[in-house]
Amino acid sequence: YQLEDESAHLDEMPLMMSEEGFENDESDYHTLPRARITRRKRGLEWFVCGGWKFLCTSCCDWLINICQRKRELKARTVWLGHPEKCEEKHPRNSIKNQKYNVFTFIPGVLYEQFKFFLNLYFLVVSCSQFVPALKIGYLYTYWAPLGFVLAVTIMREAIDEFRRFQRDKEVNSQLYSKLTIRGKVQVKSSDIQVGDLIIVEKNQRIPSDMVFLRTSEKAGSCFIRTDQLDGETDWKLKVAVSCTQRLPALGDLFSISAYVYAQKPQLDIHSFEGTFTREDCDPPVHESLSIENTLWASTIVASGTVIGVVIYTGKETRSVMNTSNPKNKVGLLDLELNQLTKALFGALVALSVVMVTLQGFAGPWYRNLFRFLLLLSYIIPISLRVNLDMGKAAYGWMIMKDESIPGTVVRTSTIPEELGRLVYLLTDKTGTLTQNEMVFKRLHLGTVSYGADTMDEIQSHLRNPYTQAQPPAGGHAGSATPPRKAQSAAPKVRRSVSSRVHEAVRAIALCHNVTPVYEPRAGAPAEAEDAEADQDFSDGNRTYQAASPDEVALVQWTESVGLTLVSRDLASMQLRSPSGQLLTFSVLQTFPFTSESKRMGIIVRDESTAEITFYMKGADVAMSPIVQYNDWLEEECGNMAREGLRTLVVAKRALTEEQYQDFESRYSQAKLSIHDRALKVAAVVESLEREMELLCLTGVEDQLQADVRPTLEMLRNAGIKIWMLTGDKLETATCIAKSSHLVSRTQDIHIFRPVTNRGEAHLELNAFRRKHDCALVISGDSLEVCLKFYEHELVDLACQCPAVVCCRCSPTQKARIVKLLQQHTGRRTCAIGDGGNDVSMIQMADCGIGIEGKEGRQAALAADFSIAQFRHVGRLLMVHGRSSYKRSAALGQFVMHRGLIISTMQAVFSSVFYFASVPLYQGFLMVGYATLYTMFPVFSLVLDQDVKPEMAMLYPELYKDLTKGRSLSFKTFLVWVLVSVYQGGILMYGALLLFESEFVHVVAISFTALILTELLMVALTVRTWHWLMVVAEVLSLGCYVASLAFLNEYF
Length: 1051
Prior knowledge:
nine-stranded mixed sheet, nine-stranded antiparallel sheet, 33 strands, lipid transport
């Protein structure tokens, strides 16, 4: 009861938009969404202002929902190797990226074309020519241009669709080995069912979501690459279910009776809850399953061969649930031209009514009205679409031929003008702004700090404890304090620093999830002599794999200073000391990094001394309450963060055997609980995390892509607001935002505190509102909560920020943020990314740009434009975006002017001749006017330039003007209308008045004057001449003069 009461109370309480928020009640910002709903338009006003559209789409959606009833997603029990035991029918395991099928292709493409007013209008006009009473000219004058436009569009769509079909077919027909009672069978990816046991080889794609049962690796674990799922390039360690991994042979999977209980399919790729149960032994074996026992579809096996049981297929896999359907993108310029054609249609109807009225509604006036509508139909030119589509193709060709941005590909040729209208740029971080290559930069021990130039001191400190111990006596080698002899020799201070460096480096070398991987060489020793083989393996042959590039950077650094990780499996780890001896440690427990805990821990036993140590490393916010009191940690973390380094705090705690045994029993008990498992496990681990000894602070740098800083600065100066959406951790995202100058040095950063309910969101939004001119950093979970209750307010505040960083974003959240910006601001958005996890965002944005990077080509293939490097964005927008928009605006308006001027002449001609609905120019003259005589000069406007590319790059502020849309607006359009009416009137009246005696030749005289006027107008509109423009002018004039000989029947 109290909860309901609280939310009701919050409803009445305004969200302050400013400090004075409470006094001023008029603005609808101050009331919550519920209050705002009451002011909707009512009745007829609502219906006319778009209500009819809403009703139509609602009806269609309702019909579609009835046709394709969405099945409710449920949890499931999957029996190993027995798909037939499934209680429900599950979707087919096939991938489908096509927009249409055989039956919907033609209707779909035609609908996409005729939903534009312009094309629909032409269709009606062309069809009217089949009615004898309305026939005005030859059929080809109307049907030829329309047929041409449709043929080009259908061909283009068909080619795209066929390519998609081939890509899908290739993926769906990949062969996998399926385990059956009779042995292995080859099965197509699309025929895999829930419950099948599938074998996946190294470097093969995992075909569906599976639970990991067995692997060929002795350790019982394997690595998978997840770059197409979550955009992270590092490998993830997955662990097989121990019950099935222990079985002697593969075939035994069928001799046991076991099942997996899996939760219902959901979006979250970072979590999974389930249980594995084996029934045929006494007592039954129960094992808990978590995210580390799963293999999601679209990931790739990086080591060994794996066997898994399929739990989700097709549409229910995580990767498919996280991708959205591609939408057909329409440029803002096309929408604006569509509005102008509606205005022209209004003018056309008005003009025809005026003509019929002046006739005095004599005879069958409605037929005359129709004839006038057709006679003057050139007011709306069909060549507008043809010219614009050819123009877009030309811009695409110019972009791909630009040598300053090599490797750029235009994949969607319909929206190059969008590049000139962008206000919001949403970018991914990893691989887009950064190279995803980590470099170790700094080690801080509290009293002493080591940078890149002083690493040799660390090497000498490390050599001391190891070299002075006798190599055979492994007893001293692993211990923290150097042997007695060394202590007396070295001065006191020196020794303490030395032992602290040694402790810190050893902690960094042990506390991680890194596995060294050796590329097998020809004639390498067999696996039996593993330990010896490892010793003589050359260092150049070793690569490290881990779930985070930071960890690899740390382990590579410990190798460079002398302490090398040579082997690792689930139960042990081996280090090589600077003197070459091997130190072995047993791994007793590992606590992996999670976004909630922000730290990872490991408990190891030193085999030589049997000491048990609990090491931990993590973010400073998580570690500072855990470590013993100190006065330097917070300050140093701040210093490193300002340099753009990613910081990790390393600490340790020595445990006695009794302490560890007590912990282990409580921990395994917590891991088996079904309810609140995560909470109970966390509580047990936290009992260890007390009063830990702080060892050191490390700083790692993620290197930025080339020229990221100047590019971001250029975009900011151009008035583009940049948002960074990343799946990475909050600390990392904040670091990169600072180092890439996304957030300038002087700006404050407001980190939005984690919120879980409406009350917290309310308070946190009010706290954020009081800040001025500061960048916002918010995590995906908090964002969800705020959008649920305060969507309008949050977006409104975020749009006022100079920069916004959203971290821990899932692919669907990225797409949702793009959609919110489009809905709330009505401005054009652009999304840039390079991984499979950015595809949804790229497809949702008005303009999607993919970078062909390390994370594969999935984003580049799904994008409208793909580029090779982030810095190419600057030129793509400033130069190509600008010129495409400016040229298309000029071209569109000029083509309209061309139609208006001839329609004005027709109107004047009809009014002089007693309002007769007779065409002034017959068949070929009309077709020739729109094509042969004026097409080349008008089309040559696509070569026009208003500023040189160098100037556009030097003064990005020029771009701000484009976003206001001043090149094509009702104002510029009306200017062109006035010019056209004036010119058309003068030409026709002039011809009639000046050449009264030559009245028979009025058609020839006025037509020649019209052509010359058009050619002159093009010459006057051009800003920068190009040699092709001159050729076009001369050619057109030549064509007209030459054709006079053939067209004597018209003149």
